[in-house]
Known about the structure:
The chain is an alpha+beta fold and about 750 residues long. It folds into three domains: about 5-30 and about 455-600, Aldehyde oxidase/xanthine dehydrogenase, molybdopterin binding domain (Aldehyde Oxidoreductase, domain 4, 2-Layer Sandwich); about 35-135 and about 195-245 and about 250-280, Aldehyde Oxidoreductase, domain 3; about 285-455 and about 605-755, Aldehyde Oxidoreductase, domain 4 (2-Layer Sandwich), CATH 3.30.365. Strands 3-5-1-12-9-10-11 form a seven-stranded mixed sheet, sandwiched between helices. The protein has a five-stranded mixed sheet with strand order 7-15-14-13-8. Helix 16 (about 525-550) packs across helix 17 (about 575-585) and helix 18 crosses helix 19 (about 715-735). The longest helix has 28 residues, at about 525-550. The relative contact order is 0.12.
Amino acid sequence: MSQGLFSGRYVGKRIKRIEDQRLLSGRGSYLDDLRLPGALYAYFVRSQYPHALIRSIDASDARKASGVVAVYTYRDIEKLVEPFTFEVASEPMHLLASGKVRYVGEPIAMIVARDPYSARDAADLVVVDYEPLPAMVDPYRAMESDIKIHEPAEKNIAFQRSLGCGDPDKAFSSASTIISEKLYSQGVAPTPMETRGVAAVFDGYTLTVWSSTQTPFDLKEELPSKIKLQIPRVRVIQPDVGGAFGAKIARYHEEILVPLASMLLGAPVKWQATRSEDHVSMNRGRDLYGEVQAAFDREGRILGMKARITGDLGAYPWGTELPMICARMITGPYKIESASIEALGVYTNKTPLMAYRGAGRPEATYFIERIMSIAADELGIDDVEIRMKNLVRARDMPYRNCSGLTYDSGDYPSTLARGVEKLGYRELRAWAEQEYRKSRLIGVGLSFYVEVTSGGPFESATVRIEPDGRVTIITGSSPHGQGDATGFAQLAAEILGVRIEDIRVLWGDTDLIARGVITAGSRTMTVGGGAVIQAARKVAEKARKVAASILEAREEDLVAEDGRFYVRGTPDKYVTIKQVAEKAYFSPPEGLEPGLEATVYYNPGGPVYPFGVHVSVVEVDRETGRVRVILHRSYDDVGRAINPMLIEGQIMGGVAQAIGQALYEELLYDDSGFPKNPSLADYLVPTALEMPTFEVFLQETPTKHPHGTRGVGEIGTIAAPPAVIRAIEDALRRAGIRAKITRMPVKPEHILEILNRG
């Protein structure tokens, strides 16, 4: 869009988040803050085995325990609820395990008591007779095993799909160098600050449910389809959410069972997960393998690719889309005209796989960037040069990649060139050489990425000027900490000509607006903001008509600013927005309906594609093998920057999680399928002490959207891991060691092994 459509009074400015005063002063309202009079409390008995038959469940002692109101097993609810079913080879996922458990943490029984402590104590009285079965934790072994996790799935394969273009066999036959690697992006725990939780109350007509979720509207529609009791009306409220990162998209057992218990018992029921509970029951992220072959000519140009993406789905197929997203994006920003790509999902006895910040794109970027860096080493070509030779050119835009995705716009080569200069890549490498002479082992790594954001089908918004002149925005998006309310308010303030202080933004209540979609896929500001813009423009147009009638002036001669309309050139001749609103509601001009309100459902018409360059600098301790990221710089094309400060926060947060994946985090299971690090005592989440200095630079190439944005929420997790890994290799090279890292996290013991090997 033309940048002239915004004056720049609010849009593009570094405005502090309007949400934060309430949250920082302790006036936030999270799920566990909810106090429901007469509430009962739920607790779940979970499987202690990764794979077992359930011979019997004896809950008789638990039912007699002090404070216990009810205990439910599958037999108690089987006629009251529908299981989750899937479109791939799978058995149903029962809300409480029926006959078999498939992962440690799968719910078996629900206890409801008068206080959470009685419910927890009673759980120890439930006796489950298990018959253990062999468990699978490696998808490759699962495909070779006769052990079946789901009966319909041959060789434990849930699905298998193929993508491709051109003639890869011909490309490989003419190649001078073929790079072949098996790469792994390990499974991680999303670990939001707030654990999952749900509460419900049924008054005989309306079932009201509070959930720490990213998708309140989906939950509203799911509840009547899963609970076989008559529910005339459902209302879902998303309180403040302390992080989600994609892990709160899918429906969980508890979100259906807690409302069911409320209906059956005629009382409010509440459940909040403990941290250790969440660690074994919240869907995990990543866990994709990439077997990638790339054919290069002598000059380092990619002729073709063959790839197989294997997703470890865990026990149920929630995350089938993840290997497919990875497969669609694995060619990255490079012009690869011949490729054959296979994607498959395989069952194991782990917690189910689902989206985690980036959802398939971090894995795709990691795979292709590792291939580019390894090829650079093999061919003796500089990291920047090999990328420059292969990037999609501006003249090719819009560019359709090998899987059929169409990159909308961008000049990748010039962005790489500017990024290398702006981020001081070559200067940092020279500095690293100088530091080596002082016995410091410093490495500098680079990655280039393209990612896909802001898909449909739509997002909704209502914009309303109240009779007192203040503005209310209701968004169908469901933010969970990103600062989107501030961005929405900036857009509306600029369009309506009001002060940002006079705007409030509401979300997360299905009674506020008919339908919203989701906060995920870096789409909230892009798609949700598009709806806000269109609704605000409709309201502004009507307000201008009303103001013109009051001022007896032409609409085109009016200026809206600081909550006033005035005639251009004569700012002393004005009418306030409050006066306009009063007239619009109570005595509108002839031909206009009362009120100043508009609701819009904005369809983005397809995704957009952010891109850019990241550079990481690490220091390797020769004695301990510890790797520390000391500096991370980024240069990202974000389309239009509504609020640069929000963007910087999102990018830094994503990079922090990427550093966790590159160096610290991994969900570990033993060969029998039992979690080895099921708590934060063993699972390493990086803290502020592990964070580097961040320097964020933005490039703005507006897109087709009304505000020109691209979506930035997941950039850091996508771009940073391969930059960190390449920096480690660069540091080791200075020690005279040519290392090739193909999996994460890179632990100190791995570095010591490489150093000792020499």
